[in-house]
Amino acid sequence: MTVKRDGRLVDAVAQITKSGYVFVFERETGKPLFPIEYRRVPASDVNGEILADTQPFPLKPPPFARQAFTEEMATQRTPEVHRAVIDRLRKVRSAGQFVPPSLEGTVVFPGFDGGGEWGGASFDPETGLFYVNSNEMPWILRLVPRPAQARHSTSRELYLRNCANCHRQDLQGTPPEFPSLVGIGNKLTKSEIEVALRRGSGRMPGFARLGSDALEAITRFLLSGEGNEVVADAANLSLVELEYTHDGYNKFLDPDGYPAVQPPWGTLNAINLDTGEMVWKIPLGEFPELVKLGMRNTGCENYGGSVVTAGDLLFIGATNHDKKFRAFDKATGKLLWETTLPAAGNATPATYEVGGRQFVVIAAGGGKWGLPSGGSYIAFALPEKVIASESAR
After folding, report:
1. pLDDT (tens digit, 9 = 90+) per residue, 320-360?
2. What range does the domain containing 221 cover?
3. pLDDT tens, 172-190?
4. Is 68 domain-assigned?
5. CB-based contacts of 216: which residues, under 8 Å, 6+ apart?
6. Does residue 161 or residue 4 have the better pLDDT?
7. Neighbouring C-beta atoms of residue 49, cutoff 10 Å
8. How many domains are contained in the chain?
9. Any idea what the CATH number is for the domain that residue 223 is in?
10. Which of 39, 144, 161, 226 is the most buried (most CB within 10 A)?
11. Half-sphere exposure of 322 toward its Cβ, with a 13 Å CA cutoff?
């Protein structure tokens, strides 16, 4: 992008982060265009964990996501869920960014899937406005002791060492991203499980390095639940010994399955990169079932970016739960148009022109966090008679 600084144009590069910050640098030199302050951050009290003393915090632009989950921010959706969230929050650590993992559990906020997403941001060269959508979902990261390496291990120890950080010690996982392995024998045969372990599947890496005996032992443990079988574990002896793993990727939800923090749970933000100021911020997305109860404009988890046009519009899908595709006034954030897609538009839209008629298209893939999947591209354009009328003017 090109931004204005002290009356001159500067070629720049901007990087959004999952912690909710934007870093802006001169493109050729890497010099920060806004001050960056290195602040001391907490040390770890877990044996063997050594962390950096400081971390960088840009002083501008302001963070586009909240930075700490406090008791004052606990959900107020109902008195019962509020009390439940407060009770759990008081049992874990929650003090903002860069609080290290702990044995009692540490709140990660705006979350593993928080802040900016892989959909990226969009930039308007006419106005210098930078648009980024964001998630604000607390998670809890808890360290658990990792079984010590040995030349021989039980099948359960092999599972705990290699699989439990995603599928948890109790095999429950955190579906749908990290599926439960309970009753896996009802879904897959023994040979299918072994192939998945050896070759990997989806985001899961393969574990061929463990050797056939170890893989067969893990498979039998998954099928039977019996974890006392002892097998050779020589493959692990060459790896770095780690004292701890974690108990999975666990969202901090209220008892009804909604985020433990007060809304907004998803936002759309416009930031002026000439000045480093926030121009507008709005909730992005809703939960249809909460809308029926009168709870609107909560925002929701959103995955996929935006596209900004010279015609003063910002298009974005992304919202998981309501499956909407929206057009906003790029200057004010006012909603101008929306439609419901067949599945969530977890993608960044594209715009193009054919024969003088502009189209915008988005992939409606859905499927994130167990929501319905789709497989269609949906294209939109103004009716041709409207275009003809505008041309006549």
Report:
1. 999 999 999 999 999 999 999 999 999 999 999 999 999 99
2. 147-241
3. 988 767 889 999 999 999 9
4. yes
5. 194, 231
6. 4
7. 14
8. 2
9. 1.10.760.10
10. 161
11. 26
226: left (phi over 0), alpha (psi -120 to 50) or beta: beta
pLDDT at 105 over 80: yes
| Residue with tokens 């519009």, as numbered in its chain | 313
Q: Is the pLDDT of residue 255 over 70?
A: yes
Is the per-residue pLDDT at 20 higher than 90?
Answer: yes
Q: What is the value of pTM for the model shown?
A: 0.85
Residue 246 lies in a domain: no
Q: If we measure between CA atoms, which residue out of 85, 130, 84 comes closest to residue 276? A: 130
**Is 327 a domain residue?**
yes
pLDDT digits (tens, 9 = 90+) for 367-386: 877 778 888 999 999 988 76
| pLDDT at residue 268 greater than cutoff 60 | yes
Q: What burial letters (b/e) apply to 324-334, b meaning 16+ CB within 10 Å?
A: bbbbbebeebe
Domain identity same for 113 and 156: no
Same domain, 90 and 173: no
d(CA 45, CA 323): 43
Does a cis peptide bond (omega within 30 degrees of 0) precede residue 58?
no
Could you report the per-residue pLDDT of 57-92, keeping only the tens digit for each? 999 999 999 999 999 999 999 999 999 999 999 999
Q: Is residue 74 domain-shared with residue 14, that is, in the same domain?
A: yes
Residue 156 host element (H or E)? helix 155-162
Cα distances (angstroms) measured from residue 365 to each of 75, 135, 323, 372, 373: 30, 19, 10, 9, 6
Residue 247 counted as domain residue: no
Claim to verify: residue 301 and residue 222 sit in the same structural domain:
no
Looking at the structure, tell me whether residues 293 and 382 fall in a common domain. Answer: yes
Shared domain for 185 and 120, answered yes or no, is no
Do 229 and 319 lie in a common domain?
no
The predicted pLDDT at position 70 comes to: 96
Neighbours of 75 (CB within 10 A): 20
